[in-house]
Amino acid sequence: MNKLISKVKIDNENGARKAVIEDLFYDFNRSRVQVYKMNFIRGLFFGFGSVIGGTLVVGTIVWLLSLFVDLPGGVGSFVQYVVDVVKHR
After folding, report:
1. CA 87, CA 66: separation in Å to the nearest integer?
2. C-alpha distances out from residue 4 to 1, 9, 11, 55, 85, Å
3. Taking the model in full, what pTM does it have?
4. What pLDDT is recorded for position 81?
5. Which is more confidently placed, 4 or 57?
6. 72 — alpha (psi -120 to 50), left (phi > 0) or beta?
């Protein structure tokens, strides 16, 4: 019986939390059009940021690889080949 009472309390608490979150969401976003606009703009900025971040990461990797071009044993020539391929594509 105590297990059932505990389960009901937890379910009531979770339901109340869900209702509060939904109320907050609908207070800030009254129309679906507004939500769609906000998500569209958010997606544009996410995509733009991903492209800029990826460019910086690839540029940094190419720069770091170019520091290892002078390594002996064929490693340097391989690194130079990789750097050339990345720069020319």
Report:
1. 11
2. 5, 9, 11, 56, 66
3. 0.48
4. 83
5. 57
6. beta
Q: Which amino acid is at 65?
A: L
Cβ neighbourhood burial of 35 (10 Å; 0-12, 13-18, 19+): middle
| 41/21 Cα distance (integer angstroms) | 23
61 with 83: CB under 8 angstroms? no
**How is residue 15 written in tokens?**
């339901």
**Over residues 49-59, mean pLDDT:** 93
The Cα–Cα gap between 14 and 20 comes to 10
Give the mean pLDDT of the chain: 83
CA gyration radius, the chain:
27
Number of H helices, E strands in the chain: 3, 0
Any idea what DSSP says for residue 31? S
Compute the distance between CA of residue 63 and CA of residue 57 in angstroms, rounded to an integer: 10
Q: Which of 58, 56, 78 has the alpha carbon at shortest distance from 69?
A: 78
Q: How far apart are CA 24 and CA 41, in angstroms?
A: 21
